[in-house]
Write a structure and sequence with these properties.
The complex is a heterodimer of chains A (about 290) and B (about 240). With about 290 residues, chain A is of the alpha/beta class. Chain A contains 10 helices and 13 strands. In chain A, strands 6-7-8-3-9-10 form a 6-stranded mixed sheet, sandwiched between helices. In chain B, a hairpin with a 2-residue loop joins strand 1 (about 45-50) and strand 2. Chain B has helices at about 5-40, 55-70, 75-80, 85-90, 95-125, 135-155, 160-180, 190-195, 200-210, 220-240, and strands at about 45-50, 50. In chain B, helix 1 packs parallel to helix 5 (about 95-125) and helix 9 packs across helix 10. In chain B, strands 1-2 form a two-stranded antiparallel ribbon. By secondary structure, chain B is mostly helical. Chain B contains 10 helices and 2 strands; from the N terminus they run H-E-E-H-H-H-H-H-H-H-H-H. The longest helix of chain B has about 40 residues, at about 5-40. The chains are: A alpha/beta (about 290), B mainly alpha (about 240). At the A-B interface, helix 2 and helix 3 of A face helix 1 and helix 4 of B. The structure holds adenosine-5'-diphosphate and magnesium ion.
């Protein structure tokens, strides 16, 4: 039943807050070591609820979670040491310095006293935050806080890192800095990563595998290129009076031929995961 | 095992350091007003149960002020749960719920003891002489642990800040006014007496007052304090276990 090669395995995970409707409605998946997975879906799809169940902040209504084959519900305290979490909202202690925030985390995760300082300074250096070491967090910009939260999640060298909308609300150039940082973590430390996002570009650029979630259900699971191939590589956008219609084609020449024939203003472009989502659900991820 | 406890204390004390002065000042004011209003206002001639009223009042203020400060950790835990979400860091960490509960409670005890010391300073200033039964030290620890564990419990159970305000207004404030901190409870009507004997503050106040004014300490009451302390420790564990972020 439990394959120990899977770092994480989830079976029929479900969470119902209100009696009638499930926020997460029975999701199943498994990750192996070093995978970089994206959980992509619109706001309210159930991404945060999923992450919270996987990290022990919310108890599932039903379903099971296994880390390295062991049941998370039964062995949660021990297993939590293997998990790193970057929550959707930065939850740093604003009155403490960067160093103190990291030191607190080091105590919580049982890093021996003798190793704490060196470990913190090494990571501050790894993420380019050394200059912020002794400053109170409340003086930090959003991007710097975000990097510190990510850094904190790495302090105890987790085997799997959960990032819940890591770049939401950040400037485009800061977003790129964070992206580079996350990719570096995955490559250099071989940390398994599950990142949630509602940004198409983020999922396409970073993730080798994408789970698309809608209304609490995972509607598709695969690598972005294959998913896009599945619906055709090119889109003809037909700008009708009552909105844009999309038609899908396997190659550019077919799309261009259709464009010639159309009487509406048209545009040909490559497909994105947004189109995959639209194709499956009839709505867009970002409205 | 002790990581959670150590981490909680590290955090709370690091933050407390930056606010110590403000918090000491604010916990000094209201007992001073009570002392002026009731201590001076009633004058030294009024006696209660064989004590001058001010000698009666001082131990009451010790229980009140330390209760207020110990219980105040609940408001801070609320802020860290609902606004900054820093409490989630404890919940996702590989530490036991007991170590979080005890860590928070120890911080509550620390604040409660500081609040008690303020009243001793006032007692000195107002020339009130107190006698010390060693039981006092046990009692003040039990008292502050009781209300710290109660604070941890309620801060986990409430769903938002206004829920916490409700607990303060409907449990803590009535307790402070009914449980013998300002007057002996034997004068209360029977129905109120029944109510008052459910509140743990009644026993804290009786034991602490007796231990500071040369009265006889009832070991049944000390036993009841131990009972409340264990009970609220268990409720805090239950509350932490069932809390969802
Ligand atoms: N604590 C909660 N109580 C009730 N409903 C909730 C709670 N948390 C989330 N929900 C609901 O569950 C659904 C999924 O939310 P969430 O997991 O936060 O979505 P996402 O992170 O994908 O935006 C939403 O409809 C949201 O309103
Ligand atoms: Mg979310």
């Amino acid at each position: 039943m439990n394959d120990n090669n899977d770092i994480l395995r989830v079976d029929g995970l479900k969470k119902t807050f209100l009696k009638d409707k499930a926020a997460v409605d029975g999701v199943s998946f498994a990750f192996s070591r070093g995978e970089f997975v994206g959980l992509l879906g619109p706001n309210g799809a159930g991404k945060t609820t999923t992450i919270k169940m996987l990290t022990g902040l919310i108890r599932p209504s039903s379903g099971a979670i296994y880390y390295f084959g062991s049941d998370f519900q039964k062995e949660s305290q021990k297993t939590k040491a293997l998990i790193g979490v970057v929550p959707q909202q930065n939850n740093l202690d604003r009155d403490l310095t960067a160093y103190e925030n990291l030191y607190l985390h080091a105590i919580l995760y049982g890093i021996p006293k003798a190793a704490r300082k060196a470990r913190i300074d090494e990571l501050l250096d790894f993420s380019g935050l050394t200059d912020y070491r002794n400053r109170q967090v409340k003086s930090f910009s959003g991007g710097t806080m975000r990097r510190l939260v990510i850094l904190r999640a790495l302090l105890h060298e987790p085997k799997i890192l959960f990032l819940d909308e890591p770049t939401v609300g950040l400037d485009p150039q800061i977003r790129r800095v964070i992206w580079d940082f996350i990719v570096k973590i995955n490559r250099m430390k071989n940390t398994t990563i599950l990142l949630t996002t509602h940004y198409i570009e983020e999922a396409e650029r970073l993730c080798k595998r994408v789970l698309i979630i809608n209304d609490g259900l995972i509607i598709v699971d695969g690598d972005p290129e294959t998913l896009k191939d599945g619906i055709g590589r090119f889109v003809l956008e037909v700008h009708k009076d009552d909105g844009i219609e999309e038609e899908f084609f396997d190659n550019r020449s077919d799309a261009l031929a259709a464009l010639e024939k159309s009487t509406y203003p048209c545009k040909v472009r490559g497909v994105t995961l947004e189109d995959v989502f639209l194709r499956l659900t009839g709505r867009r991820i970002n409205v | 095992m002790f990581n959670g406890l150590h981490a909680v204390l590290y955090r709370e004390l690091s933050i407390y350091r930056t606010r110590a002065l403000k918090q000491m000042l604010s916990s000094s004011l209201s007992p001073l007003l009570f002392l002026i209003a009731f201590g001076w206002g009633f004058g030294r001639d009024v006696t209660v149960g064989g004590l001058s009223y001010i000698s009666f009042l001082i131990p009451g203020l010790i229980t009140m002020n330390s209760l207020n400060q110990s219980f105040a950790i609940s408001a801070e835990i609320n802020i860290s749960r609902f606004y900054f979400h820093t409490f989630d860091e404890y919940l996702i960490a590989p530490v036991s719920y007991a170590s979080i509960a005890i860590g928070e409670a120890m911080f509550g005890v620390f604040r409660g003891l500081l609040a008690a010391i303020i009243i001793f300073v006032y007692a000195f200033i107002f020339h009130v002489t107190l006698s010390f039964n060693p039981i006092f030290f046990v009692a003040i620890l039990l008292h502050t642990f009781i209300f710290s564990f109660l604070a941890v419990t309620t801060s986990m159970v409430v769903k938002d800040h206004s829920g916490q305000a409700l607990v303060n207004n409907f449990a803590i404030t009535p307790m402070i006014f009914l449980c013998g901190t300002f007057y002996p409870i034997d004068k209360l009507p029977y129905a109120f007496k029944l109510l008052v004997y459910v509140f743990p503050l009644t026993y804290s106040t009786k034991v602490i007052r007796a231990s500071l004014t040369g009265g006889e300490v009832s070991f049944i009451y000390v036993g009841l304090m131990v009972f409340y302390c264990i009970m609220f420790f268990l409720t805090s564990l239950w509350a932490l276990r069932s809390v969802e972020a």
